[in-house]
Amino acid sequence: MTGSHLFRVRRGIRPLAAAVAVSAALLGVTACSSSNKGSLGGGGGTDESGSVTLVVPTSQAPWNPAYAKLVKAYEEETGNKVELRPFPNPDVKTQEINDIQSQKHTFDVFQVNGADLGQFNESGLLQPLTDIDPSYEMDSHIYSFGNLARWDADKKSFAESGEVVDLPFSGNLDIFVYRKDIYDKLGLEVPTTWPEVIANSEKIANAKAAKYPMVFRTQGIPGSSANTFDFQALLGAAGGSWYADPGTDWKPTADTEAGVQAATWMRKLAEYGPEAVSTMGQAQVIAELQNGDGAQSFLVAAAASQLEDPANSGQAGKFGYAPLPLAPDGSAAPGTGIWFLGVPAGLPKERAKAALEYITWMTSEKAQSMFAQNGGIPIRDDFSTDGVDPAQKEALAAYDETAKKLPGASTSIWYPFASEMLNITEPGLESIAAGKVTPEAGMKQMQAALEEMVTKLDLPQK
């Protein structure tokens, strides 16, 4: 299994506390000199006053300025110091795996992309938070996101029965985006089903109210979660899933009636967008909305800040935001795109305690409200939107309503074998969107490939 067994750490290895500081110029965080090594050695440490310095890797993300403000507030409140080390998104994972393999323990906290969370958990790269503090309990106000904080090692999946191994830090999921001026002009109602989305697209097309009645991510990137991520909103709303029961029965279910229905919706929606579906990545979708060519979309809530930025969007102030159509059981259907914080396996005990305290602070109501107020997407249901731009408030409200309705089982495909699966689904879904194959034929092709993959990986099937 490529990538899922890069390194294994024995559960018996336990942690330590504290870390070091330099500067994260990208984030504008003032840090200490890199020569200020702590007494504990390794990456972080403590000084004579007992204050802690933490070394934390982070991605180069649009929410970095908001994170920088949280770090500054944390330092001011606790007296501790933080060295944020920014890396390009793919390199965060590489740096962390290298740190575990070398046993240097440079980092006190790991920031993990949801796409890599299954691999990190199966490979034992993170330690359960109760190993650090036996009395630890996850804050009930933190969104479950389909139990993505809880890893069940026996099922090799995320489940309520699992141990809390990480906490979400920066949230994201798909919401519906539409041009309010076009909707008002044509007397359209905000859709609550995908057939209604398609019907509105047809009305916009007939009225020639926009160049593209619908734009969404159709580009497939093998091994990465691009169109597969957005397709989840369609698949879930149709009542479908990729597997019968992840964790206990990995029988693929791509070509079921629900799967074909979702693919049919995808193909129909793609007909209202650019013909070159292979070029429609997330950045291109946002650009078509910003320049006024796109009338509707479904994409991550975090994109609202770009759509509402007058410096880059000619349509700022014209967008409306709403939850996407629900699944048949009333639960939310979109996948989630989240960054998590966890404590590296094997980190010495005192440093691990300091790392957990940092994570707890960063996921608190105070910190997450500050995150939202500065353009971040919070991971709690009690965040404050005081001072938030009205349009951004609407996007956050759609996000919050969706997050609260996510089912107990994860809607995302963050499995240890996600890369292998995405090598199949990304090109397959692109072909369906482009009309190269019929929805039924395309789903059957993916079904056969997924069956072969599951058999090769020896995953349990009933």
CATH T-level fold name of the largest domain? D-Maltodextrin-Binding Protein, domain 2
Query: In percent, how helical is the residue content?
Result: 25-40%
Mean pLDDT equals 90
Strand order of the biggest β-sheet: 1-2-3
Count every helix, treating DSSP H or I runs of 4 or more residues as helices: 15
* Distance between the first and last residues' Cα: 21 Å
CATH hierarchy, class of the largest domain: Alpha Beta
Major beta sheet, specifics?
A: 3 strands, mixed
CATH architecture of the largest domain: 3-Layer(aba) Sandwich
What oligomeric state do the depicted chains represent? Answer: single chain
Number of strands: 14
- Principal-axis shape equals globular
String of helices and strands = EEHEHEHHEEEEEHHHEEHHEHEEHHHHH
Count up the domains.
2
Structural class: alpha+beta
Low-confidence stretches: 1-41
Strand fraction band? Answer: 5-15%
CATH homolog superfamily of the largest domain: Periplasmic binding protein-like II
Task: State Rg.
Answer: 22 Å
